[in-house]
Amino acid sequence: MTGFPLAPQDWVVEDTGSGLVVARAHLPADVAGLVVDDLTSHLGQWFDHVLPVDVDTAPAGLPSGSVRALHCMIDRRGRGIALETAASPDRDGTSATCWTSTVGDYARDRDTARRVVAGRPARPPQRDDMPCGLPFHARLVLRRDTGTDEITLMGKGNEVDVDDGTGPVPTPVDHVPRMLVELLAIAPRPRPTSDAFVVTNPDALTRLLDSDPADADAARAVLAAPRLADEVAADLAALARGVASRWALEWVRDGLPLRRIDIVDAGDAGLWSVRADVPPLFAAELGEDVTPIMLGRVGPAEVFRELTLLSA
To answer: What pTM, to 2 d.p., does this model score?
Structure first.
């Protein structure tokens, strides 16, 4: 963190005992107004490639007034690095914390690191839910007004062959999430304001995305969902008006799909996840002959976590 008013020796490095290291520092009152942007503005001096992924101005588990930022970088040894930094007000200034991991470990380490940053006991990182690992095969389909792009990714050792139709290009595996974040332009974006979701069906979603609803009532009519709450219906109308692209990324192993991300990108109206694993309780009212899907807002950090599973 050199280059900031704090010197390296001002940071206290804490070994959590769980394989993670968290660095902490106290900002005195005369610089307490500085936010995470100031803490991370110098990163370009140390990394050739720095990509801001997400800024959260109300992070869960931290005091009111805290700010948290996530960056993805490539270091001088060619490794993909995830850096998460937080600044929280305290009695006589601001407490700053940061932690790093390779991009491939970010998905595994995130929840444990955030517990430590918030002052809660660390839990040992778990790998049981990691669906990938090399070798793997992934396929990305990106649909925009300008057309459809397809990219395949084939894992081999510590490299991925990335093929956009012009031939495979060997790429270090922990560069891939950063490459996808940049290609898909998912960041920075507005974060979800609620956890609300909508259960509908693929045909209704297609009608919504092809329409231009002026308001909440128009969105309800397109979806044939008259009981949608005002806030949710208004968000869906903004989604339909702002939709810029839709992309899906599917992991495959031994010919069987392991995991799938399906995202509708609505620009300033945010990122929306389309999920097929709808709990039966929520899908019951659609009827037995209807394929249910669940549509809900997601933030750039959640999408980044999913993309890092490529490197797990």
So the answer is: 0.82
